[in-house]
From TrEMBL:
InterPro entries according to UniProt: AfsR-DnrI-RedD_regulator, BTAD, TPR-like_helical_dom_sf
Protein name in the entry: DNA-binding transcriptional activator of the SARP family
Keyword NADP belongs to the record: no
Superkingdom, natural source: Bacteria
Length: 225
């Protein structure tokens, strides 16, 4: 662990030596933007994204002021050159860690906790919304893969939690509902499997006017009879 940590999942937070640091809104947005980007961000791009309603000159001035007001710990928080800005190399970001974990082959309850979290909830900026939608899709795939890994390892409890988190993220995602139905059947809970299927069917009919696929229906066909 380094001394600086930026949290983007479940809300913004900056920690220095394990203690929270107050960050003014403009600096908060700047740090979040740099934390979401892997490489340096050109100064004009950062200024335009952070102050979209301002003139180019005014946005550049706001950026300079924000950089001046940033907390300045011993470890560089932001590396600023004449042309670009980047997050300091030693700054840890939970979102970057979560994306790396999503691509890892193992399964752990720690990974499950990461994938349950939303990216910067309540932030309306377009550059945040684009990343949030990417994260939503990435975490759905990761949660389903994680559920399958837990199930292969015989850990049906965490397999169920991962599939349930996927359903909560996207209530109309059939593959996640299907996994929950299969897990209930494997646990010897046919009534719960039917309830899960019927919940999904009701939501799908109400929102899209569609029926579940034959694949998930076949799992509970004999129970419905």
């Amino acid at each position: 662990m380094t001394g600086l940590h930026i949290q983007l999942l479940d809300g913004f937070r900056l920690d220095c030596e394990h203690s929270p640091v107050h960050v003014v809104p403009g600096a908060r947005r700047l740090l979040a933007l740099l934390a979401l980007r892997e490489g340096p961000v050109p100064r004009p791009v950062a200024a335009t994204l952070l102050w979209p309603g301002a003139t180019e000159r005014r946005a550049a001035a706001c950026l300079r002021s924000t950089l001046w007001r940033l907390v300045k710990p011993a470890t560089p928080l932001v590396v600023a050159t004449e042309d670009a800005l980047a997050l300091g190399r030693e700054v840890e970001v939970d979102f970057r860690r979560a994306t790396a974990v999503a691509e890892a082959p193992g399964a752990s309850p720690e990974a499950l906790a990461l994938f349950k979290a939303d990216l910067l909830p309540g932030w309306w900026q377009p550059w945040v919304q684009a990343e949030r939608e990417w994260w939503r899709q990435a975490r759905l795939r990761a949660l389903e893969a994680l559920s399958e890994r837990f199930r292969s390892d015989g850990d049906r409890h965490h397999a169920h939690q991962a599939a349930l988190a996927a359903v909560q993220t996207d209530p109309l995602r059939e593959s996640a509902h299907r996994t929950l139905v299969e897990l209930h059947l494997a646990d010897g809970n046919p009534a719960q499997a039917v309830r899960q299927y019927q919940t999904y069917r009701t939501q799908l009919r109400a929102e899209l006017g569609m029926e579940p696929s034959p694949h998930i229906h076949e799992l509970v066909r004999t129970l419905l009879r």
